[in-house]
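Why should sequence recovery work at all? Because a backbone constrains its sequence more than one might expect. Tight turns favour small or flexible residues, buried strands favour hydrophobic ones, and helices have their own preferences. The token representation captures these environments compactly. In the example below, the structure is given first.
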């Protein structure tokens, strides 16, 4: 089992390296060329001043401030809707990572909130699971009364709920994201799966400008 587990990780690492490494190198080359051209066209700007400016922009991005979207100093990620979205990502353990508390009070409260919120979320999901299980049992009984074999009933029920789950959570949401966010269907499927699996990379977040 350990050998199989490690082999799976090694295989995944090799495939990601093959798929992503050259793309990253290409972006780096483009950025180096853009930096060189920018400094050549703006000779009054030193490389050190540009580096300081870029560091400031990166720090702002890490704090959840998108300078491309900022039209007013009154805009904030921590209004009620943004805060509500954040607490949802906390208790579901998605943790996109694009927004996080920076104050000492916010970080302490986040720990306490998650400590009680995550178990509460698990209890709610458990109750939902029980309801779905009861629906499955009803469907089993209904099909069994029709004279269908028990093994076939189990298989049909499993396929039915699997297809319903894929349809509701992976097929429909990307259409909504395409309409509202302007993402492609592939990006919508990717975002839906990364969110539902609670991986939550944070490279795609609703309401945020995607810089790829």
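From this structural description, the recovered sequence reads:
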């Amino acid at each position: 089992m350990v050998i199989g587990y490690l082999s799976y990780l090694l295989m995944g690492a090799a495939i990601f390296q093959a798929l992503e490494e050259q793309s990253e190198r290409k972006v780096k080359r483009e950025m180096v060329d853009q930096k060189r051209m920018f400094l050549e066209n703006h000779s009054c700007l030193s490389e050190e001043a540009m580096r300081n400016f870029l560091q400031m922009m990166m720090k702002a991005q890490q704090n959840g401030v998108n300078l491309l979207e900022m039209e007013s100093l009154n805009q904030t990620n921590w209004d009620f809707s943004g805060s509500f979205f954040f607490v949802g990502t906390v208790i579901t353990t998605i943790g996109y990572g694009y927004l996080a508390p920076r104050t000492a009070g916010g970080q302490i409260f986040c720990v306490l909130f998650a400590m009680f919120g995550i178990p509460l979320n698990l209890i709610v999901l458990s109750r939902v699971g029980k309801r779905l299980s009861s629906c499955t049992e009803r469907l089993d009984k209904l099909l069994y009364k029709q004279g269908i074999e028990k093994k076939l009933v189990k298989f049909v029920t499993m396929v039915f709920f699997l297809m319903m789950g894929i349809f509701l959570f992976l097929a429909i949401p990307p259409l909504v994201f395409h309409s509202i966010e302007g993402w492609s269907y592939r990006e919508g499927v990717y975002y839906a799966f990364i969110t539902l699996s609670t991986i939550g990379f944070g490279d795609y977040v609703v309401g945020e400008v995607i810089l790829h």
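A few observations help interpret the result. The mean pLDDT is 88.
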